[in-house]
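Hi U.,

Before I forget, here's the chain from the pilot set. I'm dumping it here mostly so it's searchable later in email.
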Amino acid sequence: MEHTLGPDDPRVRERAYQLWEQEGRPEHRHLDHWAQAAREIEEEDRRNSGGPRVNSPDAGLAVPDDPAARNQREAAEHLGQSTVPSDQ
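Structure:
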């Protein structure tokens, strides 16, 4: 089960305080700092969830899924072939 950040999460409180101090302790920005802290911690949690990191060698390349290539790949999988012949 995934942890959801709540209003009493000490990590968000600490990060929001750090952001407030870094900006010179401005007044009336507490909601902005809190929201930014929650976003940053959620992103850290996603990065640390065990999957490959975006810039790691294991992540591979993100290639858009071309419908024609997808159809060829699915047909090859359906026929039990491991590769699809190329036009080149």
